[in-house]
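Budget justification aside, the reviewers requested a transparent look at the raw inputs and outputs of the sequence design task funded under Objective 1. We therefore reproduce one unedited record. The lines immediately below are the structure tokens for a 580-residue chain.
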């Protein structure tokens, strides 16, 4: 940390997140005190503030978060820092085309995480020579020694195989570190890995390289250790070292606000278009409007239709292959310091394996947009492993998130436009089957505002559906009219925030009866969002239709009926609720 902060890295103390400065990610976030100490020593804030570590009224938390102006992302959920660093380095090399470098410090214990190796593969594949990954190989984990301990050659061979310039150094030797960082800066077409052999508690009497000291204060040993360390200092005088400055404005100023579709939606009413296809169309349109829009995918671009951006702007498409944890981490890194507007797409169900990355993205105050296609049983024959049935629940739990569930092509294009301009994590749920265009191309859409797509003065039940179930609700309403039962049909557009005011208002107009139907497990989805909304309302009854068991392969229409979310099932639910 001393060599990095006072010899190698170029940054501005006056502007810690300056676009042209080098980046540093502390992947092993539990080492936060040394990061705070480095910035205090550099002069960003008084050294005395370090005494407030972990206190309730201090932002010097137990693990770093962007509540601090010198932190780009929250870390400490181990195995994620390299992906974020890869995103930063990729943008620096290929989009900003600037000379800033990215450094990430990884613990040897966390290198057991598979996500680390997903990211290392990404860095090697894209020859990110502006990236330096430092492994702190101190041998000891939290509860016992790591599996490799100090087998430095094993680390070196593995990193060499992943396409890195792998350098083994004595992590306590300042001269070796200076040389290694210089070599990293002059190595082309390969990222560098500095594999530092270190000892936990180096020079601490009766503590160095011993177990059971992870995360523990020294207690009664503190004075003895500090006196011993002070005795080793060769030059006790005050030393002022000024960190190197970045090249002025090597990263140009960019704007990521007021993003618009380059052209408005252009569909015919009744035209049959899958919302996943409309997503790809809209993505290319906003990319035409703003050159900071980028797309990332996990080898599903010809299914999610993110390849529409790739065809139009190949330099702004990042293929992350089948490695969803790295995919999400790279996007979070790419969006840091407001350098890009990132859209990440894959099948909705595959985001579940990257939930920790998305969760940490929220802690990191990211503005990444996630787009999940192939949701629900309506995908058909591919079977339950491919069906997104938990995704709404997952994204609803993310603090500050916005969850879009558009039902036709027009609303999908507007959801993409809105997401590009919305702070925080956004999720857009798109569907595989074609659905009819029901909205005029000029229809305005707003976050948290539902649409009523069918109504009359005689409505006795409010039907709420989204995506393909909106059409099942419409078909059910048409069928029920034949027997004199009139239903109002609502398209929520966003599941979070949900339009509670509209739900309460229209439920009251329909005699306090609601039937909600969704292509999602019943837990955590649209139905429970509606139930939460009306929980405090008297005289409202809700029938909730959703998938209740693990589905199977089959034709989409057969599956929709088999698992209780078809128009036939909605008709039955309406008849039941009218008997109550």
């Amino acid at each position: 940390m001393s060599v990095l902060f006072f010899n190698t890295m170029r940054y501005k103390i006056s502007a810690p997140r300056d676009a042209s400065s080098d980046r540093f990610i502390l992947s092993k976030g539990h080492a936060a005190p040394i990061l705070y100490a480095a910035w205090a020593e550099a002069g960003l804030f008084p050294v005395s503030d370090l005494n407030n570590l972990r206190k309730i009224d201090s932002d010097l938390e137990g693990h770093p978060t962007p509540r601090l102006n010198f932190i780009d992302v929250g870390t400490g959920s181990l195995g994620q820092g390299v992906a974020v660093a890869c995103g930063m380095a990729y943008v620096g090399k290929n989009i900003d085309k600037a000379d800033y470098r990215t450094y990430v410090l990884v613990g040897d214990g966390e290198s057991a995480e598979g996500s680390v190796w997903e990211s290392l593969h990404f860095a090697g594949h894209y020859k990110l020579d502006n990236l330096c990954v430092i492994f702190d190989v101190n041998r000891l984990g939290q509860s016992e020694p790591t599996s490799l301990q100090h087998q430095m050659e094993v680390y070196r061979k593995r990193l060499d195989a992943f396409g890195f310039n792998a350098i083994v150094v004595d992590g306590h030797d300042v001269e070796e570190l200076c040389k290694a960082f210089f070599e990293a800066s002059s190595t082309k077409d390969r990222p560098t890995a500095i594999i530092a052999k270190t000892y936990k508690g180096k020079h601490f009497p009766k503590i160095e390289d011993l177990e059971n000291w992870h995360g523990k204060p020294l207690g009664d040993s503190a004075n003895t250790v500090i006196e011993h360390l002070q005795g080793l200092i060769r030059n006790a005088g005050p030393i002022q070292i000024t960190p190197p400055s970045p090249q002025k404005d090597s990263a140009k100023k960019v704007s990521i606000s007021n993003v618009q579709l380059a052209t408005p939606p252009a569909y015919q009413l009744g035209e049959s278009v899958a919302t996943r296809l409309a997503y790809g169309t809209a993505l290319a349109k906003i990319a035409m409007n703003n050159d900071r829009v980028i797309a990332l995918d996990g080898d599903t671009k010809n299914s999610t239709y993110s390849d529409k951006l790739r065809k139009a702007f190949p330099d702004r498409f990042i293929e992350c292959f089948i490695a969803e944890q790295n995919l999400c981490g790279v996007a979070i890194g790419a969006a840091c310091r407001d350098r890009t507007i990132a859209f990440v797409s894959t099948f909705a169900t595959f985001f579940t394996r990257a939930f920790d990355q998305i969760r940490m993205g929220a802690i990191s105050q990211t503005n990444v947009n996630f787009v999940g296609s192939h949701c629900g049983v309506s995908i058909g024959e591919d079977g339950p492993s491919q069906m997104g049935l938990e995704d709404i629940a997952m994204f609803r739990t993310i603090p500050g998130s916005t969850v879009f569930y558009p039902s036709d092509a027009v609303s999908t294009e507007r959801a993409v436009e809105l997401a590009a301009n919305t702070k925080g994590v956004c999720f857009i749920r798109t569907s595989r089957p074609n659905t009819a265009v029901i909205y005029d191309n000029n229809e305005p859409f707003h976050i948290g505002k539902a649409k009523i797509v069918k109504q009359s003065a005689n409505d006795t039940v409010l039907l709420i559906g989204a995506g393909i179930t909106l059409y099942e609700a419409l078909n059910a309403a048409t069928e029920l009219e034949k027997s004199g039962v009139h239903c109002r049909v609502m398209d929520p557009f966003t599941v979070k925030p949900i339009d509670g005011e509209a739900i309460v208002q229209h439920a009251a107009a329909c005699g306090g009866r609601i039937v909600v139907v969704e292509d999602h497990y019943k837990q955590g989805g649209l139905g429970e969002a509606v139930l939460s909304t009306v929980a405090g309302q008297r005289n409202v009854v809700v029938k909730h239709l959703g998938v209740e068991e693990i589905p199977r392969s089959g034709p989409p229409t057969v599956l929709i009926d088999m698992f209780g979310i078809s128009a036939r099932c909605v008709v039955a639910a309406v008849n039941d609720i009218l008997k109550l």
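The chain is about 35% helix and 15% strand. The longest strand covers residues 513-521. Computational costs for records of this kind are itemized in the attached budget.
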